Fold Polysaccharide biosynthesis protein.
Amino acid sequence: MTSERPPYTAVIFSSQRSASTPEDGYDEAARHMEELARRQPGFLSMESARNADGFGITVSYWETAQHARAWKQVTEHLEAQRRGARDWYVDYTVRVATVERHYGNAAGH
Amino acid sequence: MTSERPPYTAVIFSSQRSASTPEDGYDEAARHMEELARRQPGFLSMESARNADGFGITVSYWETAQHARAWKQVTEHLEAQRRGARDWYVDYTVRVATVERHYGNAAGH
């Protein structure tokens, strides 16, 4: 749960992994991209889940749509996007959304 | 990938499952709630992923925020929300967002 007040931006990345191998570089690249994202201006938080069958959802939260767009254009991230489309994902969808409200029982509320 | 054109509404539900048991009713309730959601007015699509450690993300997509709000108020769903808060989730956060754009390589684009 981010402590940020709405509105803020969510980037919802849904993907189906291709058959993975330990040598395909995915795990290392995913870790590195998350570290890099966390250092970008306007970054709020990030969360990920993936099923055993390879379907996963990652959502990153940003102060504004401009911050999210800037992250999309970071050079190392562009290279990871290219490798993802070519090697790591059978299908993927990116949705850019404005969070209007949030609630829950998590700490920080 | 929904074939709907933005803007549409995303409800992002992030949760940490409590220690689960086969008898806690969660799996059956989750299946039933998904079936019920798919029959609601304005429903577009739904996707879920959960890590082995119990952290999960479910996103449901709706034509409008009003459709998403109506689903939140469906009697059986209210009961499931109560059981979730009490029995199934250690933490959860719900975010209601407006999808402004989407892209990807999935069928239907």
About this structure: Chain A has one domain: 8-99. The longest helix of chain A spans residues 75-88. Chain A touches chain B at residues 1, 10, 12, 14, 47-52, 55-57, 59, 65, 85, 89, 91-107 (CB under 8 Å). The longest strand of chain A covers residues 89-104.
